[in-house]
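Reopening: structure tokens for the adenosine-5'-triphosphate complex, inputs below.
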Amino acid sequence: MAGRPAESPDWASAAVDAPGKESSPGARPGAVRAPRAVRPADAPGGGDAPGAPPREQAAKPASAAATTSHLMGMIRPMLTARKLTKVYLSGGRPLTVLKEVTLEVEPGGFLAVIGPSGCGKTTLLGLLAGLDVPTSGTVELDGSDLAELSEDARARLRGEKVGFVFQTFQLIPTLTAQENVQVPMELRGHRGTDAQGHSDDDPVERAKELLARVGLEGREHHYPAQLSGGEQQRVAIARAFANRPRILFADEPTGNLDLATGARIVALLEELNRESGTTLVLVTHDQALASRARRTIHLLDGAVVQDGGAAA
Ligand SMILES: Nc1ncnc2c1ncn2[C@@H]1O[C@H](COP(=O)(O)OP(=O)(O)OP(=O)(O)O)[C@@H](O)[C@H]1O
Ligand SMILES: [Mg+2]
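Re-run output (same inputs, fresh job):
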């Protein structure tokens, strides 16, 4: 579109981390919790901003459990969806595919969304990542209300903080595997050192490293058409991690993989969740993968029918 700034493709991811401290006390990695009761100062770091009252001044909870829940209430969620509804017009008739879905994911959380084909999982993921807009309801991603952002601003936010693995991969057919993984880094450009101490990656080296981590060493120079479905899926996963996203949305990331390769991808996702604090929101039919999540939400006909809750 004329006059628009160069825009990252929808899937492009990056982690231009705000000086937030996801490692702040109480930021239990992997935690997903019920809608919060207390909202911290809207400063990066959720209450750890300079000038915030020292934690010691807060009333002292009676037990360790109380301390955890007390501090949990002070963490700004990475993702909050409230009453998300999506209605498509299908043959001129309205088709409600999501009905008032509400959920919240902590920084570093790991949420799995499961449910039968056609229940609205992909639609939900698209709304949560800001790729599509809801008919009603709101999504807040790392403190930004997506409805208040222009399309360009939403695209920038995605480019800075979000990784996305599409159910259909969406690799660029004219680029090799390695070039596909490099693209988000090239689009992001120079950013210096981020809050986690990562300086700019060399795109070629990082692309090679990520492809090796998904088991594709030796396939770097293959074009998508020269790769199997499962191999393309793994390139898409490597690409989603290229810019060290703060939150990764993945739609059936093991859907085309055999058991062993699927397990390898699950391990990689968990490693990134644990080591980099990357928040994970996955759609899956894979029970093995869902069982690794800290929380599972079961969708049926566009509504949450079961909420597995956070692991103890
Ligand atoms: N653009 C659209 N226009 C009209 N209907 C749509 C559109 N996109 C999705 N739908 C319908 O919305 C429903 C939910 O689709 P969605 O892709 O979210 O399901 P899903 O749970 O991801 O399914 P699967 O497990 O098969 O991937 C389906 O009935 C689908 O036909
Ligand atoms: Mg789907």
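The chain has one domain: 79-307. Residues 130 and 154 are 7 Å apart (CA to CA). Marking as resolved unless the reporter disagrees.
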